[in-house]
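In this section we walk through a basic example: taking a raw amino acid sequence and producing a predicted 3D structure, encoded as discrete structure tokens. The instruction is simple. Fold the sequence below.
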Amino acid sequence: MNARDGSRAPLLRVEGISKVYLMGDVSVTALREVSLDFWSGELVVLLGASGSGKSTLLNIIGGLDVPSSGHLIFRELDLTTATKPAMTDFRRRSIGFVFQFYNLIASLTALENVQLVTEIADDPMPAEEALRLVGLADRMGHFPAQLSGGEQQRVAIARAVAKRPELLLCDEPTGALDYRTGKLVLEVIERVNRELGTTTLVITHNSAIAGMADRVITLRSGEVAEDRRNATKLTPSELSW
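The resulting token sequence is shown next.
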């Protein structure tokens, strides 16, 4: 992980982001004036209970949603004022998503699911290499129905990292998995961060996962309740819950 350095600009800057949803005559505030910097190479865990705003923040960072106010700056691009083509390019080139549910295409093999992304990326990692990175070299020809939940999630990670994104956004990546399988998936995420230097944000309600992070951000009622750095990082195998 690249240490925070005052001489460098952050990879991503969140400046006073708020998000308000209108439901009829009722307005619901999901985020309130959130300001955060994310640095190249960091592995960040975002903690919070359901409704704390963490998924809303991740969706805004990934360009899947827009804030009601504030600015989101990726390198020198202000995403909150960017054109639709610029946002499409940002999502296509710079962002990799991993969700709780794997969203694989059932009629395609693991290899073919990953190749879908490599066909639209500018400088992709070969799909075979991405699957080897997540430990599935011997499962490339299998269909999703022939894979366990953990294996399907690893295919989803391989698909996300194959386009070499600068930001890997993981929304409850272990939420549908048992304890042992969840730890295997966390090991893959940690390996991607460590070996590829991909800035990685992991959303979870499981506070034990925070031990593997460089930095832990806790959201509560749409606000940043805590932003701290871990003095000592644990490996995923050392985590327990």
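Looking at the output, two observations stand out. Strands lie at 12-23, 26-38, 43-47, 69-74, 77-78, 95-98, 167-171, 199-204, 215-220, 223-229. The chain has one domain: 39-66+83-238. In the next section we compare this with other chains.
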